[in-house]
Amino acid sequence: MPPSTSQSTADPPGSPTHDSDSDLDLDLHELDPATSSHRSFNRSGHNRDSSDQRAPRIALRNLRMGGLRRAKRSRGYGELGQDLDNTGDDAEALLDDAERHGSRSMDRDHASGDDAPLLPGGSSSSRRRSFAQEGLGRLSALRSNLRLPGFMGGSGEQQSGRDTSDDQDEEEEDDPSASRLVPVGFADPSRFPPNRISNAKYTAFTFLPVTLYNEFSFFFNMYFLLVALSQAIPALRIGYLTTYIAPLAFVLVITMGKEAYDDIGRRKRDNEANAEEYTVLHFEEPGQAMAAASQRSHRKLKSDSVKRRRRRLLKNGERLSDIREEEERIEGQGLLQSQPSSVVRELPRKSRDLKVGDVLKLSKGQRVPADVVILKCETPETAHDTVAHEDVPTGEEDLLVDPEREPHSSNKGKGPDVRDIVQDNVQDNDVGGPGGETFIRTDQLDGETDWKLRLACPLSQNLPAEEFVRLRVTGGKPDKRVNEFLGSIELLPTKEDAQVLSSTLPGVGDASKSAALSVDNTAWANTVIASQATTFAVIVYTGVQTRSALSTAPSRSKTGLLEYEINSLTKILCAITLALSVILVAIEGFENTEGNVWYVKIMRFLVLFSTIVPISLRVNLDLGKSAYSWFIHRDPGIPGAVVRTSTIPEDLGRIEYLLSDKTGTLTQNDMEMKKIHVGTVSYANEAMDEVVSYVRQGFHVQPTVDPASRKALITPSSTFATTANIGTTRTRREIGTRVRDVVLALALCHNVTPTTEEEGGKTVTSYQASSPDEIAIVRWTEYVGLRLAHRDRKAMVLESTETGRTVVQVRILDVFPFTSEGKRMGVIVQFYESMQSGIPDLDSGEIWFYQKGADTVMGSIVVENDWLDEETANMAREGLRTLVVGRKRLSHQQYREFSRDYQEASLVINGRDASMQRVVSEHLERSLELLGVTGVEDKLQKDVKPSLELLRNAGIKIWMLTGDKVETARCVAVSSKLVARGQFIYTVAKLKRKDNARDHLDFLRSKTDSCLLIDGESLALFLTHFRVEFISVAVQLPTVVACRCSPTQKAEVAELIKEHTKKRVCCIGDGGNDVSMIQAADVGVGIVGKEGRQASLAADFSIEQFHHLTKLLVWHGRNSYKRSAKLAQFVIHRGLIIAVCQTMYSIAIDFEPEGLYKDWLLVGYATIYTAAPVLSLVLDKDVDENLANLYPELYKELTSGRSLSYRTFFVWVLVSVYQGCVIQGLSQLLVEVDGPKMVAVSYTVLVLNELLMVAIEITTWHPVMIVSILGTFLAFVGSIPFLGGYYDLEFIITL
């Protein structure tokens, strides 16, 4: 009988198992030579006395290893691992360790392991022989189950033969960008970056230069800097220097202060994540730990049982120093192995203080703070078993052993040796014991909702925590590929060997054992531990070298579209300023006279007309942005909203493309079984109660007087349960049987494991699985009456929820896990006919094959039927994820034939997977009985459907980018109404050829009303070879769904849309895998998800629900853009009108560059007398909120940019020219051309005109607006008596 597929695979090519000349076979036979003879203990003790006088002998193992190394130098790359069956070596070395421990008082000439003589002169006791022979039998089983790829360990052997210098080796190891050797438990903070999360844009050193560069990259800031600097030249100075310096400094202080405030907020949030505490294992020297034990108490792990054997040494103080001296001497000879390599303490440590090499202790629900390699997974049951196994009572007389007294009795009654414990653990685990498995959630990393199974390497899983310091992990250089990892782990003789940062240890030879590591042995940063097991893991990559950090683009400063538009308008204003200056000088003529140089006059005019480019524009806009951010934060309709980047709120009103994640953004990642169809009838909603009654009847065991009935179990062919249906019709009985069969199939065909935990004093059962779909189905079977009570690798037990009685018990023979290629999973089970503790004989009990999968593959596997296609199509239209369930009964002969062929296929070297699948197809996947179809719903976030519809009506094109599977993405797109009912979905998946890509593009060009569903592989091909063609077609489609996307691909798509369309792109997500996309977007929105806040911390705006996005865009985006556009136009109007007045005045005084309004009048006009009314426009509303939601089409007008365009700009220029000419012209005509009377009239009318213009432009009055206008007018009237230096006050009084 073959073992379960999920835990047994064939040996890799080149495995020593199939090599008749395997060096391992030679080693095993040499452990206990058949020709050796017995010697007495007395003779052994005698020979020991003279051992030091003999010439040193060459260890047989070293001799063999030297031959192997010489042979390997001539091998090719593909043969590097031919002799690396390291598992056998592990156990072999453990046997050697135990032998050395048992023969301390024997002759060193007869020691085993590395000290074995070349020519054996005898052997040890018969006990030693029997122990080694027993180990041989166990090693043969080990070799067949634990295998290592040759290329992993071969590099080390190949390197040992190279002729390279130590300096070069040191350089290579110290390079953090190259592959690394990580000693477990030994942290070296100098070699690798700190483990810090940083979303900050600036540091203390870069803040000033970066912010100043960003500010002066805008044209009008640079313009005003030049104007302000020009006032340092006496010939160009007009009025006070502070008139020009102060406004610029004020603008810079406000802007930089806001940037600093935002960045400090980011740093505070980063510090919260960096301060998260974790439990780290601290390894101490055993001697130091014993000395410190009397002074302080601390938590210990499994070292308690080992230390207990030595604790009583402290009671005999007179002999303690002698014993320690003897132990050190023996340990130096490599003979003392009973003492552990270290003593372990648990210490709390913050995330930012974690280093490469630290060992973490992680529990359920904890975020993984760095990239780690899993060393050990311990469930409460396995932990209890291990401690019980180690905790063997010992006698005091056995702990204090005198080396001079009865050496042959030193092992009598002694507790287990550490190496014995390790050996036992290796054997126990290999025969299928529990442990070594944990589940992680990766949706924060890659967006996939399925839980991922992660495994501890058997080499480290079987070690007690004290021996972790003998491990060393080798990993590749940091990269961003989250689905790939190549590495190895070594178990070295001592912890000192493990801390040597060299790939080759001289003198160690094959005493070290290694195993290959893959991505299945890792957990990347920002994943979450999902199982109940306690997970021990060593940190391999930290900080900026983690997978998630490398997949995340650095933070960048974002600038709104309105800023760029105003920047272009100021260039026009500057051109007007220059043209006016040159024209005024040209009219007078370019002749130079004494004290009147023409180019100086042009410069003075430029300074006078600098108000045309109003520096107060930046101040007003920045204050407006702060007001918009405050409105968003205080909006009761968007609870929990946070504005993290307050420079771009206007862009919320200009969005044309919305790129959304799926998991946690559109969906809750909470599956629920909604519908089941059994061929003739469909059950959903309230009809599920009928299923409950059928299950209650179908799994009811009728009690009888026969005692055997108490142990009777249900099998698929059980008939006695149907006696409860005697009074029902035949049709109802048939339906009841169908329901029972499909519920039983769903309760058995899965990879779900039940776990229990205590919550509030109550025992709560939860389920663990790699797929949330399976958990939803198992929960449904529990709801209808059949609970999964127990599951391990070998068996499953189902209970009735009504009675609590075990009704079904099966033995798992084979499991065929789900793959993205196969799209189905299956299981072969053997049913118990009655309750029993032992494993039933294969010839007894029914054997059934159950399978479930996608309708596209199961349609050809099940028997012909007339309803499957129709029903799956109906469920798909409802947005349900469908699974087709089938079964097939196997005779015992059929199963034996399948098992034999499957085992042979698993040993094939070339095309193994295809051969195994072919056997499954031929023997099992033919004419399955169709049981039913299930429909599972991925629950959507609140109000997702109306929100998406409203955004579509607002003219926003919505793309969904997810890391999840194609089928899942399709179902969510349909259920969320992202794809309209009846809309054609064009799927492009697994595209590998460029010529096929062109065909797809041609089809999409001809059908631009369809939805494109594309996977990451095909998307990568399009982006590589047909970048422009693809995006030009894709942006014309109403909806695009991209699945299996990496974080980098999401960001690339966002950048590509921005680059091609020049439109504003908004990206929304909730996971760490969305950070790159959020930062690449013009506007990034993060949702505070259940699993973390990484996306929220990196986003410009943070919300709690997807439906809050509609108000953020349609209402706040609209108001922000419309208000800022009106505010900018008023500020430009305010500067233009004063420049027109200055022009009129200069013409009247013979084109001389003299100022009309100087000093305080110029500053006061832009601040006290007009600032508050103009700034109050940020409270204006052109439409009501309900109206904006009722007619989302109003949002389309915003995306066209009509509120602030060249057309509106030139309209305001003409208004300014007209008003300026009228005000200054009439003032000069009615009063005088030059003098304080004209200034008083002109300036007063100018201020009153601006207040009147604000009042005219207001759409919706707010109390603040009224107060600001009236208050400003009163402030102006009140300040007139203090303007005697500029006004003719006597003239004012006469008016």
Give me some keywords for this one.
single chain, 1295 residues, 15% strand, disordered N terminus, metal-binding, magnesium
Write a concise synopsis of the structure shown.
The protein is α+β, with helices and mostly antiparallel strands.
Provide an overview of this structure.
Residues 86-96, 166-176 have a biased composition (Acidic residues). The protein is α+β, with helices and mostly antiparallel strands and 1295 residues long. The chain contains 46 helices and 33 strands. The radius of gyration is 40 Å and the shape is elongated.
Unreliable spans: 1-177, 296-318, 330-337, 384-434, 720-727
Radius of gyration: 40 Å
Overall mean pLDDT score? 76
Which percent range describes the beta-strand content?
15-25%
- Per DSSP, the total helix count is 46
Termini separation comes to 114 Å
List strands and helices in order, with pairings:
Layout: H1 23-30, H2 41-49, H3 60-72, H4 86-102, H5 126-145, H6 150-160, H7 166-174, E1 180-183, H8 207-216, H9 219-230, H10 242-274, E2 277-284, H11 286-293, H12 303-308, H13 317-332, E3 343-350, E4 359-362, E5 371-378, H14 380-390, H15 396-399, H16 418-430, E6 437-441, E7 451-455, H17 458-461, E8 471-475, E9 487-491, H18 495-498, E10 513-517, E11 522-523, E12 528-529, E13 534-541, H19 547-550, H20 561-588, H21 598-608, H22 616-634, E14 642-643, E15 655-660, E16 667-677, E17 682-684, H23 688-698, H24 730-748, E18 753-759, E19 762-768, H25 772-784, E20 786-791, E21 795-800, E22 806-816, E23 824-831, E24 847-853, H26 855-858, H27 868-877, E25 881-890, H28 892-906, H29 912-923, E26 929-940, H30 944-953, E27 957-961, H31 966-975, E28 985-988, H32 994-1006, E29 1011-1015, H33 1016-1025, H34 1027-1034, E30 1039-1043, H35 1047-1061, E31 1064-1069, H36 1075-1080, E32 1083-1087, H37 1094-1098, E33 1101-1103, H38 1108-1148, H39 1160-1166, H40 1171-1175, H41 1185-1190, H42 1194-1199, H43 1206-1230, H44 1236-1257, H45 1263-1279, H46 1289-1294
Parallel strand pairs: 15-27, 15-31, 27-30, 28-29, 29-30, 31-32, 32-33
Antiparallel strand pairs: 1-8, 2-3, 2-4, 4-13, 5-11, 5-13, 6-7, 6-12, 8-9, 9-10, 14-33, 16-17, 16-26, 18-19, 20-21, 21-22, 22-23, 23-24, 24-25, 25-26
